[in-house]
Amino acid sequence: MSGRRSYVRPLDGTDRITARVEAEELLIEAEKVVRSTDPYLAGHFPEVTLYPAIFLLDGIRQAAGAELHRSSALAAHLGPGSPGEDWLELGTLTSARVLRPMLEGDELRLLIRVSAGRPGVLRAALDCRRGDGTQVAKMTVELVRGGTS
Q: pLDDT of 22-77, one tens digit each?
């Protein structure tokens, strides 16, 4: 064995991401359309395409990692890492509530507020809504720097 690891291509947790920094928070808006053609959903529920809430967690992780470069203060709060190393891992799931099912065709809007938590940890709060404004989920999770081995 050569010591190289191989990984399966991750789920696309978002289709589009925009972000900005306000005060000491990174504010992220991401979109995800629930599609039955997503290979991760095939056979999840045979009669209906239902988006699993666990996928929202990976959407938070991916979006925060992709946009972390916008806030040098939050990147520094995570502690030392290689330049450009913004791979984040899920830490503690502080809270999670799914209020409504996320079905095929739903255009989900993920509003994520990332702030400094305890040392070496970021706090990400999600408010997930359908395109019509109906809240479908809310979660708070801790993120830590990943990719070290």
A: 989 999 999 999 988 887 777 667 777 888 899 999 999 999 999 998 999 999 99
Residue carrying the six token digits 């399966």: 8
Q: Do 28 and 19 contact (CB within 8 A), yes or no?
A: yes
3-state secondary structure the chain: CCCCCCCCCCCCCCCEEEEEEECCEEEEEEEEECCCCCCCCCCCCCCCCECCHHHHHHHHHHHHHHHHHHCHHHHHHCCCCCCCCCCEEEEEEEEEEECCCCECCCEEEEEEEEEECCCCCEEEEEEEEECCCCEEEEEEEEEEECCCC
Edge-first strand order for the sheet with 25-33 is 16-22, 25-33, 107-116, 122-130, 135-145, 88-98
How much is the pTM?
0.86
Q: What's the rounded Cα separation, in Å, for the pair 13 and 142?
A: 17
pLDDT digits (tens, 9 = 90+) for 63-112: 999 999 899 999 999 887 655 556 899 999 999 999 999 998 999 999 99
